[in-house]
Amino acid sequence: MLHSRYTSAPEGGRKDIRNLKRIFPYIWEYKGRVLIALLSLILSKVAIVGIPLVFKEIIDILDTPDKAAVAIPIALFLLYGAARMAGSLFNEVRDAVFARVRYRAMRRLSNKVLSHLHNLSLRYHLERRTGNVVRDLERGTNSISQILNYLVFNIIPTFAEFALVAFILLGQYEAKFALITFSTVAIYIIFTLMVTEWRMHYRHKMNALDSESNGQAVDSLINYETVKYFNNESFEVNRYDSTLSEWENAAVTSQTSMSILNFGQGAIIAVGLTFIMIYAGQGVIDGKMSLGDLVLINTMMLQLFMPLSFLGIIYRMLKHTLADMDMVFNLLDEEMEIKDAKNAKELQHKQGKISFEHVNFSYQSDREILHDVTFTVEPGQKLAIVGHSGSGKSTLARLLFRFYEATSGRILYDDQDISQVTQSSLRQLIGIVPQDTVLFNESIHYNIEYAKPGATKEEIIRAAKLANIHSFIEGLPDGYDTAVGERGLKLSGGEKQRLAIARVILKGSPILIFDEATSSLDSQSEKVILEALSTVAQAHTTLVIAHRLSTITDSDQILVMDKGRIVEQGTHQLLLEKSGTYADMWALQLQESIEERV
């Protein structure tokens, strides 16, 4: 069954005219080029419409009773060739001049969407499916080029040509020719609009299923190891094929309805041309029109109806493209949950004091995660946060980083409310090693340098040494140029965590957060890194979210959390003396450690 996010929007819900208006600023950046392209378009159509006029004169001259007295109209033949050449020249000028407009618009829209996606909240990115978003982004940004292509290279030129032909027919011939032409075009357009609107349902369904299948494929590949662990290759392929089966049915129905549309369009044009030629032929027989007039009208009608026939395809493609564009503008319309305050200031680092004052938080209104959390970390102190899974430990780090806003209460950095400062300045002053380290599919050098773009090789090596990973890197065939694979899958969990620690060391932020940063390390590596972190953290305010209590015994302060509340607070020794929750956890881990050694 298709996810509701892709099926709930009705056809009429897309705001095509609004979306077309929204792409106008991207085009108007190069208004000079736009105007030159439009002028070239008009000149090209004047030249093309002029061709049958010149051809008429040539035929009338050659169709005189006394052919022996007629000289070859060299000037008209040259004018005929010049008109054809001018039509081609101005078409190419239009294409070349407008290319910069099209591709710059694509570039700007792509950048804007990616920037917006990065500015959306963590909540959005936890709920979205990467494959679907990537597919929507790809189709949506390509759609701006296609729409400009359809408008400037097909729709506007066709209507410009139609206007010129109509002007000639009304000016030189009986009104019935113009009436038949206008009626045929009107019927053709109405028929095309009605059938295309009916067909669009199937295109929307195809788009939704295409995004869904792509999302399923990307998810299964990202989670390759999980698929293998549970022997679910067939399950993933069958799930993918089930969605593609629905897509196939929608695609077949869409193609069948297109055949109906194509036949209807062809029939309308055939009937209109037949009536025009009957009247034109009768005019020649009656002596009201010359043979050149017959050729002129026939050529003009073919010249008009051929692009009009193509215009039906263009209109359908335009509607499809507008559906694609709607997806990318829907991404842009996603509201940013975390926004800088209207007059947000840059956060000023003074000493590195962190305070939580009566903070409450819930991911959902009916399930509160944190309850009246209050504590202070003095500059240079090390605060450890412990507790069972789900007690709210990592949520504190996410709130400090402003991935979410506190439901109530305040979080202060050097007595500055972090909700009133810019997110960028706040995050620049905080370095974090997350529990689940995800790396870019780039080199080790790139992944460490990511914390400080432009860092010297010496700085990177120093950070790697402090994280106890330099020797490992040097032992690799490609050293620091070794690619880590998708999400760092070529490295072990411990190697990834040491890279993450090197990265945060390189960033050099005054506030350090370690979210179970040594959970994937063996005891020896953990001991070495803890000593390094102790050295690095001397001049930093440090928050350590820990599972192994042995790693935080030297903390200046330990918070014990349970069900979102601070239930105990104090130093390691003081908490042991209280014989409470912390003492029970310590005793349990000591017992586990003894059993592991036995």
CATH topology (level 3) name of one domain: ABC transporter transmembrane region fold
How do the strands of the widest beta sheet line up side by side? 6-7-8-3-9-10
Question: Share of helix among residues?
Answer: 55-70%
| Topology, number of strands | 10
* Radius of gyration over C-alpha positions, nearest whole angstrom: 35 Å
Structural class: alpha/beta
Count of separate DSSP helical elements = 18
Oligomer: single chain
* H/E series: HHHHHHHHHEEEHEEHEHHHHEHEEEHH
Q: Which term fits the overall shape? A: elongated
- Tell me what portion of residues adopts beta-strand conformation: 5-15%
Report how far the terminal alpha carbons are from each other. Answer: 52 Å
**Secondary-structure arrangement, i.e. CATH architecture of one domain:** Up-down Bundle
At the fourth level of CATH, the homologous superfamily of one domain is: ABC transporter type 1, transmembrane domain
Q: Biggest sheet: strands, sense, closure?
A: 6 strands, mixed
Instruction: Give the class-level CATH name of one domain.
Output: Mainly Alpha
Unreliable parts = 1-13
Arithmetic mean of pLDDT: 81
Explain what you see:
This protein has 598 residues and is α/β, with parallel strands linked by helices. Among the domains are: 4-332, ABC transporter transmembrane region fold (Up-down Bundle); 437-508, 3-Layer(aba) Sandwich (Rossmann fold). Helix content is 63%, strand content 10%. The strands form 2 sheets. It has a 6-stranded mixed beta sheet with strand order 6-7-8-3-9-10, with helices on both faces. The chain is elongated. The protein starts with 15 loop residues before the first helix and ends with a helix. Mean pLDDT is 81; it is low at 1-13.
